[in-house]
């Protein structure tokens, strides 16, 4: 197999691959033998159709199928031999069979641009001061635990809707005289005074209604903050709410029994668990804010081209994730939103920054010789073994070179880069409010510009 590489632009390369004739002909022979056994052509017995006749009927399809199989087989070896790591799905540009019987094909791949990472040592950063949880913090979490263990009691058919109750209802919104199926719901549980799925004022219109009533609500959406979709902004929406049941939460007392219900032995053990969780969350928050400052500094210091297709694919993936969350919440979707250009453009700015940041972190790892050791790789296999309920050895065999494994390796490597930058930074302590204020100020100062530190 011969492979040659040429530049298309700063983030794309073209691989031209030649598969030798003997390999191509072996695959063609195999395909035609299989085809001869299965096709029926008038005038020929099954399995006895000459190859030249098969080529007349099926030649183009066979050649396309063989080309696809050989490309899938040889392309991974081609990019590995050239040390190329595609950042997005490769595009097959062309393929053809040569007079010698070989196969030639060209593939365009997106790659990381060539640049030098800079200005990542000696950063001036601020670490959030981590305060220990107070008794008030723990009490608030205990109340949340108790509410999560609440049971629902039906108030009967004679009950009326009031503040604090829950209502099971079908909701049908009409916009411009037509039902908006994306936001129509059946058996929706609405907490009166809290649920803001449709509008901050939506639930107060239900107060006083009874089981079996259909409540008509008219709401005008003057801005996007009120509306669940931009399509409703500037419009009046009419809702028909069919009330099926009215319920009340019965919240259990905060005691040892509550603790046992959530899997610990006593209330004191529950408090200890909550305290440790809050401490861990605050430590994670401190690290998150520190790394956010690193992100900002790196992005300002590097003006590099970003692979377009990698950005588009990640934008679609981001929208797919939102779709999945909505479906899990019971929201019905009438189309595949990931192909909506408006949504792609809406998430694109953040996605582009994310892709750019990963390129910078990976370049720092390369320049500083930061890599994963065997123990860290085994840690990844261990996590995969735990999640997929298999042995460590089986996880090694099953996930080696898979997309999931490579993604987990890349994430762990980038974590090490953050730690390296942190170790080489000048860090002082500050409050969360002060750090957030500075981050917002920097975002305002750089909004709409691409200026960086040269």
What does this structure look like?
With 454 residues, the chain is of the alpha+beta class. It folds into 3 domains: 109 residues, Alpha-Beta Plaits; 100 residues, Roll (Chitinase A, domain 3), CATH 3.10.50.40; 179 residues, Orthogonal Bundle (Trigger factor, domain 2), CATH 1.10.3120.10. It is 46% helix and 19% strand. The strands form 3 sheets. Strands 6, 7, 8, 9, 10 and 11 form a 6-stranded antiparallel beta sheet that branches. It has a 4-stranded antiparallel beta sheet with strand order 1-2-4-3. Helix 8 packs across helix 9. The longest helix has 35 residues. The radius of gyration is 30 Å and the shape is extended. The two termini are 44 Å apart. The C terminus is likely disordered.
Layout of secondary structure:
Elements: E1 2-9, E2 12-19, H1 21-38, H2 51-81, E3 91-97, E4 103-110, E5 124-128, H3 135-148, E6 151-154, E7 166-175, E8 178-179, E9 185-191, E10 214-221, E11 235-250, H4 256-261, H5 267-301, H6 308-328, H7 341-368, H8 374-387, H9 392-399, H10 403-423, E12 426-430, H11 432-446
Parallel strand pairs: 5-12
Antiparallel strand pairs: 1-2, 2-4, 3-4, 6-11, 7-8, 7-9, 7-11, 10-11
Helix pairs in contact: 1-2, 5-11, 6-7, 7-10, 8-9, 8-10
Please summarize what this structure is.
With about 450 residues, the chain is of the alpha+beta class.
**Number of domains as seen in the coordinates:** 3
Main sheet, how many strands, which sense, barrel? 6 strands, antiparallel
Give Rg in angstroms: 30 Å
Number of helices: 11
Give the N-to-C terminal Cα separation. 44 Å
Q: Determine the structural class based on helices, strands and strand pairing.
A: alpha+beta
CATH architecture of the largest domain: Orthogonal Bundle
Share in β-strands: 15-25%
Strand tally = 12
Within CATH, the superfamily of the largest domain carries the name Trigger factor, C-terminal domain
CATH topology of the largest domain: Trigger factor, domain 2
Shape: extended
Unreliable stretches: 448-454
């Amino acid at each position: 197999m011969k492979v040659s590489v040429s530049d298309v632009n700063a983030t794309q390369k073209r691989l031209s691959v030649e598969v030798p004739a003997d390999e191509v002909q072996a695959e063609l022979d195999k395909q035609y033998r299989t085809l001869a056994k299965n096709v029926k052509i008038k005038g020929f017995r099954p399995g006895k159709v000459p190859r030249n006749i098969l080529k007349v009927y099926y030649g183009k399809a066979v050649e396309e199928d063989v080309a696809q199989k050989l490309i899938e087989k040889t392309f991974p070896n081609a990019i590995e031999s050239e040390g190329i790591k595609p950042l997005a799905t490769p595009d097959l540009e062309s393929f053809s069979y040569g007079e010698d019987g070989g196969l030639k094909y060209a593939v365009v791949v997106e790659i990381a641009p060539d640049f030098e990472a800079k200005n990542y040592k000696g950063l001036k950063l601020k670490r959030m001061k981590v305060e220990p949880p107070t008794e008030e913090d723990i009490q608030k979490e205990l109340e949340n635990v108790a509410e999560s263990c609440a049971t629902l009691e039906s108030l009967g058919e004679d009950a009326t809707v009031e503040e604090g109750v829950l209502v099971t209802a079908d909701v049908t919104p009409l916009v411009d005289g037509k039902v908006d199926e994306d936001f129509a719901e059946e058996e929706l549980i609405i907490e009166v005074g809290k649920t803001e799925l449709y509008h901050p004022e939506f639930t107060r219109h239900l107060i006083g209604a009874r089981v079996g009533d259909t409540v008509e609500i008219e709401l005008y959406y003057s801005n996007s903050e009120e509306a669940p979709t931009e399509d409703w902004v500037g419009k009046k929406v009419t809702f028909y709410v069919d009330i099926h049941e009215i319920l009340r939460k019965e919240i259990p007392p905060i005691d040892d029994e509550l603790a046992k219900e959530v899997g610990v032995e006593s209330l004191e053990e529950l408090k200890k668990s909550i305290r440790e969780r809050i401490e861990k969350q605050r430590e994670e928050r401190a690290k998150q804010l520190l790394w956010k400052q690193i992100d900002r500094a790196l992005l300002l210091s590097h003006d590099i081209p970003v692979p377009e297709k990698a950005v588009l694919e990640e934008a679609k993936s981001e929208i797919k994730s939102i779709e999945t969350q909505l479906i899990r919440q019971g929201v019905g979707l009438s189309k595949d939103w990931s192909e909506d250009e408006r949504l792609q453009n809406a998430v694109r700015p953040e996605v582009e920054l994310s892709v750019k940041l990963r390129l910078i972190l990976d370049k720092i790892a390369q320049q500083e010789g930061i890599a994963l050791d065997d123990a860290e790789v085994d840690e990844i296999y261990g996590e995969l073994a735990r999640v997929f309920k298999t042995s460590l050895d089986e996880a090694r065999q099953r996930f080696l070179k898979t997309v999931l494994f490579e993604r987990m390796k890349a994430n762990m490597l980038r974590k090490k880069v953050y730690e390296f930058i942190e170790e080489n930074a000048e860090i002082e302590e500050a409050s969360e409010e002060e750090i957030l204020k500075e981050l917002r100020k920097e975002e305002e100062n750089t909004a709409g510009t691409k200026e960086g530190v040269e």
